[in-house]
Design goal:
about 350 residues; alpha+beta; 8-stranded antiparallel β-sheet; two-stranded antiparallel ribbon; 13 helices; about 35% helix; about 15% strand; globular
Length: about 350
């Protein structure tokens, strides 16, 4: 090899080392955080095939987020019954604004135009709080009865005409009709649609947006189902609750007292045994108290106040997540997230 060629190769080698040094990152920066690594690994689990997105945030900062199988955290998705927690928030704001008297207010005078001709006298005992906690006593219009209900010509009247299966304030009777009555009440007392109220009252919440949302034949937005939001938007809503009703900028949109009332144990699900408040479920997961909104198919919003965590999981609407065990699989994933965060506070907290 000529002296010139040898010198040229040496210079090329030195230049390569320099470029490598300039662009090299520290080993710690190259390695994914424990939470990021966990979210990567979820893509390999067969039992999580319906999983579309996961977002993990702590103290308002996103630690990691993933979209699986072509899904993105900014894409709108039907959050199903997780929207019941949003209806609960709107009721709380309506109370704060004086449009509603409080959870003990009776609903019959508000909805008198839609009451049956000869109602069961117990209908006069149903309160706003009973609707929020699924303790109205009226026959359920979820599950096998849902299709019959939404095929009716007037969803509010059909809901109010259901026979009583229990006294108001009795056992939990989970029914989307209860939250739809709340949507009708909000519309009646405000003179505005529930969607307009959500957009106006929650507008200061950065990142919050409701897209498509079904309405009943009278134009009332379906309280507690068929609402499109992106996972990022659902995270913004969860952050409002985690942050005591305040935005990241410190504006109080929802009273802290309403959040306490919403997370208070009022009844239990007959199916899962989970505690239920005003539109929120509660249970212990990985040793921590967890408040969560849950929608059909596995649309989950988890809040873990003790760790400052807000976690969103969205899924394909492929089946009833409770009966097929998928919801329990998501709870287990949350347990892994909690354990990982607790084990690596310096990296992820």
């Amino acid at each position: 090899m000529s002296r010139f060629a040898a010198a040229l190769l040496a210079r090329i080698a030195a230049l390569a080392l320099l470029v490598s040094a300039l662009f090299a990152l520290p080993a710690a920066a190259q390695a994914p955080s424990p939470v990021s690594a966990l979210l990567d690994e979820l893509a390999l689990r067969q039992e999580l095939e319906p999983l579309k997105t996961v977002i993990v945030a702590r103290d308002g900062r996103i630690l990691a987020e993933r979209g699986y199988r072509g899904n993105r955290v900014t894409d709108p998705t039907n959050i199903k019954s997780a929207s019941k927690s949003i209806i609960s928030a709107l009721v709380g704001i309506a109370i704060d604004k004086g449009l509603l008297a409080g959870p003990d207010q009776k609903i019959a005078p508000i909805l008198k135009a839609d009451l049956p001709a000869s109602p069961d006298p117990r209908i006069n005992d149903i309160t706003i709080g009973h609707l929020l906690s699924m303790q109205a006593g009226l026959g359920r219009l979820s599950g096998p009865n849902y299709g019959r209900w939404v095929a009716s010509g007037n969803w509010v009247r059909t809901a109010l005409a259901q026979p009583f299966d229990d006294d108001p304030g009795g056992d939990m009777l989970y029914s989307t009709a209860s939250t739809h009555l709340l949507s009708a009440i909000l519309t009646k007392v405000s003179g505005k649609s529930t969607l307009a109220l959500a957009r106006a009252w929650l507008a200061p919440l950065d990142g919050f947006r409701i897209g498509a949302w079904d309405r009943d034949p009278q134009g009332i937005y379906l309280g507690g189902n068929q609402m499109a939001m992106s996972p990022r938007s659902l995270l913004a809503f969860g952050e409002l609750y985690r942050n005591g009703g305040r935005t990241a900028a410190g504006q109080q949109l929802l009273s802290a007292d309403w959040i306490v009332a919403s997370w208070q144990h009022r009844t239990n699900s007959r199916f899962s045994g989970d505690e239920y408040g005003y539109g929120w479920f509660e249970r212990q997961i990985a040793g921590e108290e967890v408040h969560f909104a849950w929608g059909y198919g596995g649309q989950m919003l988890y809040i873990i106040p003790s760790l400052g965590l807000t976690v969103v999981m969205t899924s394909a609407e492929s089946g009833p997540s409770a009966r097929n065990g998928y919801r329990d699989a998501l709870h287990l994933v949350l347990g892994e997230i909690i354990t990982t965060v607790k084990a690596s506070p310096d990296t992820d907290g």
